Amino acid sequence: MSSRGPTYRIENIVATVNLGVELDLEKLAERLMMAEYNPDQFPGLILRLTKPRISALIFRTGKMVATGAKNEEDLKNAVKALVKLLRDHGAEVPFDPEVQIQNIVASGNLHAEVDLEQAVLMLENA
């Protein structure tokens, strides 16, 4: 058994953002060259940032889902960039919207073998 403890890496953070206003997605799609919007296939406008590399699904209700962040700082920077982008293209969204982390996906290495049969018995109903 290894003396090293477990290590992990965050792969993805998913957060919801409430912009607090209704949005005209058609107008935003016309103004934002990088926007993807096909309401017949999906009701949200899709924006992809490159730095940090994050995708946002933006809905008419003012709700937004941001995915792809590897850490909380990247998430905050992406939301700021998205808010600025929306404001610069005519959306009257607040500068500091409410952001809630909904899910974190991580991968890890225990640096040890795991007896899966024993783990199932020990973790029954867990």
List keywords for this structure.
single chain, 25% helix, five-stranded antiparallel β-sheet, alpha+beta, 126 residues, TATA-Binding Protein
Percent of residues in β-strands:
25-35%
Instruction: Give the structural class.
Output: alpha+beta
Report the total helices.
Answer: 3
**Mass-distribution shape:** elongated
Spatial order of the strands forming the largest sheet: 2-3-4-1-5
Description:
The protein has 126 residues and is α+β, with helices and mostly antiparallel strands. It has a single domain (9-122), classed as TATA-Binding Protein (2-Layer Sandwich), CATH 3.30.310. Helices cover 25% and strands 34% of the residues. It contains three helices and five strands, in the order βαβββαβα. The chain has helices spanning 25-31, 72-88, 116-122; strands at 7-18, 45-50, 53-58, 63-69, 98-109. It has a five-stranded antiparallel β-sheet with strand order 2-3-4-1-5.
TL;DR of this structure?
It is built from 3 helices and 5 strands.
SSE layout and pairings?
Elements: E1 7-18, H1 25-31, E2 45-50, E3 53-58, E4 63-69, H2 72-88, E5 98-109, H3 116-122
Antiparallel strand pairs: 1-4, 1-5, 2-3, 3-4
